[in-house]
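Write out the 3D structure for:
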Amino acid sequence: MNTKICTLCGRDKPLGEYSKRKNSEPWLKSACKECHRTRAKAYWKRNPLPKEVQRERNLKKSFGIGIAQYNELLSAQGGLCAICGSDTCVTGRNLAVDHNHVTGKIRGLLCHPCNTAIGLLRDDKETLLKAIMYLEKD
């Protein structure tokens, strides 16, 4: 028996279409991943979290810091992007948390264009130096 019937859509699906229950190693959830995702989206649409709570959760999940630590970083940088020194982001967003993708260590807060530029250069110092030399030719 390599299939299971989803309790929400009633379809017989392969076991790979079901998530495992946490702390119950051999057991799978009763609803398939697709139905579970649809139900969760509908729930959060009906019951949205306040923006501050969402932001706190996103910072914790992505970088392991909360709003308090973010605000400390922002204050230490004088409220400015660590690269260009802009006090506002052209996109209207908050400054992004820049981090080393290998170690996960937070380097600072950057505006969206500066964060994107570093990311597009794959955090490679040599490529950045080549870009600087290229710009100096003009």
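The CA atoms of residues 2 and 127 lie 50 Å apart.
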